[in-house]
Amino acid sequence: MKYFSQDYSLTVYLRQHWKDRRLQFESFPLNQDASTDSENFNTTDNENATRTTDVYINHLELDTRLMDKVWYPDTFFINERHAKFHEITVPNKLMHIFSNGTVFYSMRLSMTLTCHMTLSHYPFDRQVCPLTLGSCKIAHKIFNGSIIEFSCCCEKLNMGSFSCRQVSLYLARAYGYYLAQVYIPSVLIVILSWVNFWLDIDAIPARISLGLLSVLTMTTMSVGTRSSLPRVSYIKAIDVWTAACLLFVFSALLEFAYVNVTTRVEKRRMSMKEAVMLATTTNRSNPLSGLKTMEEGKSPSKRSQNQPNVKKRERARSVDKISRIAFPVAFGLFNLFYWCFYLT
Q: Assign residue 203 a region: left if phi > 0, alpha if psi is -120 to 50, beta otherwise?
């Protein structure tokens, strides 16, 4: 099946039979000369000769060079895009003519047929592709499918009513490949992004590298997945999955940004206040008293700075602790709704 061109390919044996009274003939024995010299045989040989003359030919098998001289229906596939006959090593055709005028005609074909697909549940989709067989000369009451159950799709035009039969092929996709190549790797990437919550809040390079690599890897995977699919105006199941995984990975990166900002903003603010206070005290005093003031003012400044810093760090750690539980629970609930919706 090809999604960009909206078609599918298959190889079939097209077998047709009809009755042509012009081709009727009388059955004839396999060996007409077997009984001419029956007196020269013993009793056993006479019995064998009698059995031989009892075998009659009631059908003829035509060579491929003679098939074009026999009338056959103008059957064609209405939704065919292109097709070909198989001619290796000889033309794959068979025609039998029976004594009552019945003709059996079989050929091997490889075809590409159109099929309008709906990919909203891709890769868990099920497609219904038609195989439409028609004729532009035969009346719909004569044209029937005897082996496969065909539904009538007779076309009524200005020139008359033409025969048409259609069979629907129900195709279900095997999604094991997508589980191994898309779903399981993306789950591992999302879980890898949660390692950020267990790292120390001061391990800024490690947390930045892990978060960015997770986002970039998930983005590359989603782009590669969509590149093999046609551009449609609706959302597919695999788009929902990749978008949700990318959202979880990006949220983990945002959580790190919030924790980092929370721990560092207050620290910078207190450092600036301390620097301004020490600079003011130094300018108003002489150098010796300034040094003394700096030494005396250092301790209360540190005590005033440590107290809000401790609170900020505790708040950042609590955000990490909450994320360790909230992210896996949210991702598990998303998986529950996703698989229940698209697999049922």
A: beta
- Rounded to whole angstroms, the Cα distance separating 238 from 120 reads 9
Q: According to the 3-state scheme, what is the secondary structure of 95-163? A: EEEECCCEEEEEEEEEEEEECCCCCCCCCCCEEEEEEEEEECCCCCCCCCCCCCCCEECCEEECCEEEC
Q: How far apart are CA 237 and CA 342, in angstroms?
A: 7
Please name the residue ranges forming H helices in 158-226.
176-178, 184-193, 204-226
Ordered domains of the chain (ranges, CATH)? 7-125 (2.70.170.10), 176-343 (1.20.58.390)
CA triple 239-242-243, angle to 5 deg: 80
Torsion angle in degrees (nearest 10) through CA of 229, 232, 236, 240: 100
Read off the pLDDT of residues 34-53 as tens digits, 9 standing for 90 and up.
444 444 444 455 555 444 44
Contact 73, 16 (CB under 8 A): yes
CB 221 within 8 A of CB 185: yes
Q: Cα(42)–Cα(56) distance, rounded to whole angstroms?
A: 24
Which two structure tokens, joined as six digits, stand for 179?
Answer: 């589980």
Using CA atoms, how far apart are residues 83 and 131, in angstroms rounded to an integer?
Answer: 13
Confidence of residue 115 (pLDDT cuts 50, 70, 90): very high
Q: Is the pLDDT of residue 255 over 60?
A: yes
- Report how far apart the first and last C-alpha atoms of the chain are (Å, whole number): 23
Which residues does residue 111 pair with via DSSP β-bridges, in sequence order? Answer: 10, 83
183 pLDDT more than 60: yes
Strand partners, 95: 105
Chain position carrying tokens 């010299």: 37
Give the other-Cβ count within 10 Å of 134's Cβ.
21
List CB contacts of 70: < 8 A, sequence separation 6 or more.
20, 23, 62, 95, 97, 103
Tokens representing residue 259 in the block: 């924790």
- pTM greater than the 0.85 cutoff: no
Residue type, 270: M
